[in-house]
Amino acid sequence: MRHTSGIGVLDKAVTVLHAVAEEPCNLNQLCLRTGLPRATAHRLAVGLETHRLLARDDDGAWRPGPALAELGARAADPLITAATNVLPRLREITGESVQLYRRDGAVRICVAAMEPPAGLRDTVLVGARLPMTAGSGAKVLLAWADSHTQRTLLTESAFTERTIAEVRRRGWAQSAGERAAGVASVSAPVRDSAGSVIAAVSVSGPIDRMGRRPGARWAADLLAAADALHKRL
């Protein structure tokens, strides 16, 4: 669940931005996604368009605007900065694709990724929104989520409450063919300076290479990478 600032118009504008970021939409679709009255949704979207935070495509639907990329390019994110120093080594050790995920409500977002230079790979683009109901990264993020989020998402998950309890016990998660057929992965939690889990670092690749129990091979390296990220934070 997203945080609210208590400033109504700001929270509504951010809701509009998130709705459009999911997929370009017209006014009717925007109202459905946000639950906002038609006049309010239109007024906010047009205002955001004026500031170039939203733009229109050829069909007249709103999409994220160029100002978002311009602002993002100037943003300093300690987690992303840490990832640029840690992920290359993890990729070198494993020879597989590596990713860093953050949870946003009922989805996880890839905020950093690197791929091996050659061979069959599991490509996850930065910005990709993946489900919180399948895959080792989802298990890690859900294992340390609040109880309400756990109860809500576990009803639709490919894994159980017992699974995430085991993830918390051993400190890492694995999956094989869960999120995508033929793909295996291992993930570990990344903690901030206060010890709270804020992300999941993952290694993924073809099951034929990683095996159906990839944790036996790569869990120690994932835990080391997660610790390296934690120390840089």
TrEMBL record:
Stored PROSITE patterns: HTH_ICLR, ICLR_ED
UniProt keyword annotation of Transcription present: yes
Pfam families listed in its UniProt record: HTH_IclR, IclR_C
Domain (IclR-ED) ranges: 67-233
The keyword Protease is annotated on this UniProt entry: no
Residues covered by the HTH iclR-type domain: 7-66
Alphabetized UniProt keyword annotations: DNA-binding, Transcription, Transcription regulation
PANTHER family the record matches: HELIX-TURN-HELIX TRANSCRIPTIONAL REGULATOR, ICLR FAMILY (PTHR30136), TRANSCRIPTIONAL REGULATORY PROTEIN (PTHR30136:SF39)
Name of the protein: IclR family transcriptional regulator
Organism per entry: Skermania pinensis
High-level lineage: Bacteria, Bacillati, Actinomycetota, Actinomycetes, Mycobacteriales
